[in-house]
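Q: I have two molecules that I believe assemble together. Could you output structure tokens for the complex as a whole instead of separate predictions?
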Amino acid sequence: MTSQQGTNRRDAGTLPLSGVRVIDLTWHAAGPFGTRRLADYGADVIKIERPETGDPARDMPPFYKDEPGLERSGLFLYTNLGKRSMTLNLKSERGRQIVLDLVKDADVLVESFSPRVMPSLGLDYETLSGVNPRLLMTSISNYGQTGPYRDWKATDITSYAMGGAMINTGHPEREPLHFGGHVAAFQVGAMAAAATSMHLLGVEASGEGDHLDVGALPVWMGAIDRRQSYLMGYQYGGGNSTRPYPAGALGSGTWICQDGYFMTTAGPAMFPRMMQMVGMGDLLETPEWSTPLARSAPERLDESLAVIVPWMLERTKKEIRAECQKYGVLGGPINSFDDLYNDEHLQHREFFQEIDHPTTGPIPYPGYHVKMHFVDGGELPARKRAPLLGEHTDEILRDVLGCDDAEIASLRAEGVV
Amino acid sequence: MAADNSGVNSLGSPNPGNPTQPDPSLPLAGLRIIDFTVVFAGPYGTMQLADWGAEVIRVESTTHFASTTRGMLARPALATVQAQTGMGMGMPDSEPGERPWNRSAVFNAHGRNKLGMTVNLRTEEGQEALERLVAVSDGLVENNLPQSMERQGITWERLSKINPKLIMIRMPAFGLDGPYKGYRTWGNHMEAISGHPLIRTYSDLSPEYAPAGVPSDAASGIGSALAFLMGKRYLKRTGKGLLIEAPTAENFVPLLGEFIMDYSMNGRVWTQMGNNHFYLAPHNVYRTQGEDQWVTIACWNEEQWQALCERMRRPELADDPRFCDNESRFKNKAELDAIIGEWVADKHASWVLDQLQIVGVPSGAVINERDAIEDRHLEHRGFFKRMTHPEAGTHKTPMTPFKSMNNPGVGPRRHSPRLGEDNEYVYKQVLGYSDEEYAEFDKKGHIGMDFDPSIP
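A: Yes, here they are, computed for all two components at once.
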């Protein structure tokens, strides 16, 4: 927890994306997670929100102390760290003009509306690139900007199903299972951040803008749960994948142990290490156990269970983990979030970062996805909290767009901001 | 060009002679990446860099087989291959062929656009070749057990002396320091430690049934590619390379953000949620007609719920006190799921999906691999590209998951490299060895397209 308070932090002006301005028209989960990654690396992310209500994520649980409120959503606070917030009515002509004015000096615009929305607002790529030919525009949507499913709706569970990974998640005699929370959506945001950063290099080199179409379905189809290899395996004649039986492969499964549950993976190829660990090492010389093929026989699975099950029951998660380490067996305990937060390793790494906020006070957040070992010293700086709704409206109108007090007052009176 | 180490100015100047022929207009054309990655997370990251035009050189050895990278075993028996079909494993026609390591579905899915070289780093001349490669490269990516890399001399301290502009990405499971530095895990164990299986498993079964399933591999791959790009920008700004740690745990745990926020804000520990949402109902998967056929349905708001009632021809449900608002629906979700389950039970999943999407209700069929390959939307978007692999045949490969208006060439160009396929190009053109020196490497066993016969 000391990471946030650490003194070895870089000046925010010297980060990889320092000086890059991102106009952020994303909302909910996927888009904001992606632009948050850009903010993590120093980009100036200006988040445009609807007046009064803001990003709908502000109205989504979990709320601090379970009380709803625009500045209390854990989802919003988490996905919008380090951004500036400006309210703007995109449906008003002056609001639209302000977007165009912002785009003039921006490097990137990211949006995550349904594909029809930006054109209907008069903010399609052609218009935006007319204002700024160097603009990189990234459009994030459920299914992409083209194709028969373009306008379909999705949530994390439906997309996990359509992406293909759900059919082989769970027990074969039960219903398939989805991922927890917004894992699938955040994955899309992470891909959008990478795609945007990559094309930004190209745009900077060529001076020509670009429009990226990041469809969530293609992201899941290629990425989630190693889908790409499943699609290849199917075409190789392996058939469709199914939900596997637990402990269906030698030495693989989740075992009951003295103080919880422990997962291991071995299979016939890697099982010898596990045999050494659970005291079956002597058998390795016998013809029944000496080769991967011999170990593939179903009888070996039953015989192994007779040894592994009691062995696990006699030991704690920590003891098993240590034995796995000693013998080179792949495994880990089934942890809860309590265990995760208090995990000795993540605490040692100072992974969680304490961030203060007017509503919550200082609370821990998941940290950066990387540790940058800058050779000229310092680490990525402490993150700034998520912005209050419209917290930076005046500042942006004044400093970025050069509006004077009278103009700001008139925009406010008209309900544009 | 082979010795170009300017780093800063190399964008837009592709390496001539590169057998994968990156288009010079690709965003990373002209950059060279050394690839020591194994299994999936690392290779998925370097696949991004290769898709985007970088020259990615996989460094392998004929004397070491990293299990699960090019298959579970170098020389699996026919019966073993036949037993490993589906689930992203397997080989064409379930036959190992002459060189099984070139026929693995996992490897051939993520190896595209990369070059393959072999070298034995346990020798002096092997280390010298590595040093030459480092000197003419822009990046290095690896995701091995940290100690095993360090044993081979692959450390920032050493390599940065050879090339101070190197961007070195290391992706251990847990980090380069800390109590778990040496942990051997795959993604599923790291996710178990991170709390994921416990939240997603069935509410009415023991956690022994907690499912594996590994979003962390791809998440870390994408994270590592982003990290490289950020390293590239840092280099541009300062003229200096750097070491970036992108541990898979630290790339995955952020995807569980809301659970951690609820824990830190309210002390709540979510567990065994199955297909339940935090607060929405309906939100579940329902069995439809056919074997193992399912459809997912979720409603975000009252409008969608009312549309669902209309489409089920049960408009009275919208006003039913048990279901009239989300809170009531969530409380009575067992009854609600039974009603929806009954409605879909005798229908086809794709029919339900179409009917619900027409009226704006989020719905998705639980598709399998065949459905994906034949999907009309993906077909329309040109998501799959046919590619031929010399030892595996012609198959559809997924394109990069996003499209660029100005760079439509981003994506698969060449098949996954066979072991040692590009040795001649790498040794002679990239590293600058003469024909005689190359022959010497060959004689000493560095060069080859076969694993050593002693490897099972």
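A: One point stands out. Residues 133 and 330 of chain B are 59 Å apart (CA to CA).
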